[in-house]
Structure formats: C-alpha cells, structure tokens
Task: structure prediction
Amino acid sequence: MQYELFYWPTIQGRGEFIRLALEEAGAEYVDVARQPGGMDRLMAALEDASTPSFAPPFIRAGGLTVGQTATILLFLGDRLNLAPREEAEGLFSHQLQLTIADLVAEVHQTHHPVAVDLYYQDQLAEAKRCARAFCAKRIPKFFDYFEGILAQPKRGGFLAGGKLSYVDLSLFQVVEGLRYAFPRAMRRLEPAYPHIVALHDRVAARPNIAAYLASPRRISFNDDGIFRHYPELDSE
Amino acid sequence: MQYELFYWPTIQGRGEFIRLALEEAGAEYVDVARQPGGMDRLMAALEDASTPSFAPPFIRAGGLTVGQTATILLFLGDRLNLAPREEAEGLFSHQLQLTIADLVAEVHQTHHPVAVDLYYQDQLAEAKRCARAFCAKRIPKFFDYFEGILAQPKRGGFLAGGKLSYVDLSLFQVVEGLRYAFPRAMRRLEPAYPHIVALHDRVAARPNIAAYLASPRRISFNDDGIFRHYPELDSE
Result:
C-alpha cells in the first residue's frame, strides 16, 4: 500500500512522529507537501475529505483519510507491524502515545503560553515563566513515568508489547526534541533516566532509522516547529 | 461486565467524558473514588497497574486497566455500542475525540497558561490575555470545524457513523462546559453554530443522559475542574 502523508514541508512538528513510523517500517510513502505543487494539494485535501482534519498531519491510504497524530499511528500500527497485537498492550501503547501528545502540547506551550496566534516575542515574559516551570517540574514528572514503565522487568526495554512499537519511536523523538530545545536542562536531567536514554539510543541505531536520520528526508530542527531552541528559555 | 472508573471525586474534569458514555449506555459501573475509602483505592491503583496511568481518569474492567480519556473511550466504544463499527468512521470518531482533547487542553490553559503547578492567582495577568485570545479565535476555529462536519448531509446530525457515538456525548460536554466558563462569549458565539447547539440539545434529551444530569451522580461544575467560571476571563 502507498501512503500519502500531508504535513507542513519545512518542520518536523507533529508530522515527524508519522514519518518515523513510515521510515522504520520501510513503507512506501509520499511526503506530499514536499513535492512540487504539494502545498496546494495539502490545502485542498485538508478541506475536501469527507473525514476532514482540524489540522495537519493527516494521511491518505486505501481510500481512507485519517487525521490526528495518535489516530494515524493507531491506523498505521496494525498495518506496519508497529503495534502490539494483543488488546491490553495495544491499548497501552495508544495510552502512552496520548501521554506523549500531552507532553508535546506542553512543550508547545513553553513558547506560546498565551496564544498560538501571537508571535513568540509578544509573549516572551510569559514564555520564560512557563519554560522554567516546564523544565523544573514537568519534564521530570513525565520522565519519571516513562522511566518507571521501561524499568519493569517484563518490558524488555520497550514501552509496550515487549518489542518495538510506534510509541518507542515517539519517545525517541521527544528526547531528540527536548535535547534540541533545552540542552542545558536535559544535560542536568538525563542521568536520572538511564532506561529512556537507552531506548533513545536503541531506536537511533536501528538501520532504517539511522539511514533516515542521515538522509535529506529528515528535516533539521528549527524555530518554527514544536521543539524550538530559544536559549533564554533553557534554564541552567 | 462491571466497570470501575477511577477519577477525582469532586470534579467533572476529564472523567466526565467517561461518565457520560457509561451513563448513556446504562452500563454497570462504580465511580471508585466517590465510595468510602475510594481515594485510597484510587491512589493505590494509579501506582499498581502493570499498565499504569500518568493521571486519572483510568478504568478497570475484565482484567484490563486503561488510561487516557480518548483511549478509554476507544475501549468502551466497542463494548457499549457507542462507536461506529466500520473502520473509516471508527477512526474518524477517534480523530474527532482527539480534537476535542486538544480543545479541552486549551480550555485548561486559559486559567493555567504559565504552569499547572502554580495557583490561578499567580498567573492571572497571563490568564486574562490567554482567555481573551481563546474566546476570540480558538472557540470559533474549533466550532467552525465541528459545525462543518455536522452540516454534511450524510451525517444525519451526528459526528460519525450516522448515529450517536461517544464523541457526540463529548461535544455536548464541551458546550456545557464552555457555557459555564464563558457565558458571555458563548451567548455571542452560539447563533453561528446551529448544528452544534442542536446536537447538544439532542444529547441532553436522551433519557439516560437526562436522568443522569438530574441525579446526584452529576457533579456540579466548580472552579477546581477544567471548565472554570472566572468572570474576569469571560470577555464581553
């Protein structure tokens, strides 16, 4: 099956969680908006679907159009063999993905605490307060949670189902993004989370992921995405 | 099957989306933390599960423990006949539920724009800016989206699958909550969204929902939940 991914062409953003799943699986896919004329196709598809999306990313495959990052991963997980087959662990992987979505929303809030429609510069004072609290309290709270799960002996170093699933790829991306956005905070925090760091490294070393990260298909982090490096937000 | 719902006992919060589904279906359930000794059971269950949750709500049934509001609804939807059976519409109902989750997170941000761990009074100035932008831009953006879907002729007045599903109950709850939190803004906005208002009224009139809303099981809105009425945040 060929997959069409519709997402903004110049950022990793929420689309990156989908790209990582497609790349790990070696799936045949087109990153539509990065093709010539692709942005027009994205904007048209956003409106046209009988199951329209509130915002990108969304994916089209086999006559279906599916939006919302975690729903797309639910859809792809079965098809790409990137989700546990067993019901309890399948639900758990999805539950963890939604917890990552909550974390990602809080990351976005660090640079846009007042309004998504305002420029960063117009909410800088609020952003500094928000980012300080995020690095001091929220990263540890989320990381304590994921570390605790990875430390369960039965997990075998993966979050759900005893083998790699889409949510492991997403936690890898969270670590990558937080290292870019908050390098000083992460240097201080990471030693307390050996299982998370080990999972990150194990994902980075997978052949398809390593090839993807080294390819031009991997867009660099930049300050238009979710994870932004504003040094003034990265507390010592 | 008997369901055990674990959620804070004194607020509607995110647990209310689950309560509405259980009530509509006439399911046999225990709202654990509202029973004598229930808070201790909630705190113990939060830590103990082999599939632990980051935060309430979570649900236990048939040996499974499932967390994250939208994952719980995915789990319950099939069992309670509150989700479309067909794959495309089943995914769509879940996609819409996650869009509601995004909206709910933004509602929470209006009174806690800087940090969830800080008191409202310590982020009041930021909250005023955030709520103003939310009422002016974000409610209309989300409501335009849901109104457009409900206006599709094939929808038959429901969001997905041509009949009532959990996501209709959730959109009802969003309207209820926004009316409580931002009554002035909602009075101004609602006339532009006749399909959403009609869906709200249709849900409110369902016998099981009407009985629930009139019962002591329905906790009143208050200023500890997600939807809070702070008059200074409700713009004229």
In short: Residues 2-79 of chain B form a domain with the Glutaredoxin fold (CATH 3.40.30.10). The mean pLDDT of chain B is 95. Chain B touches chain A through 47 residues (CB under 8 Å).
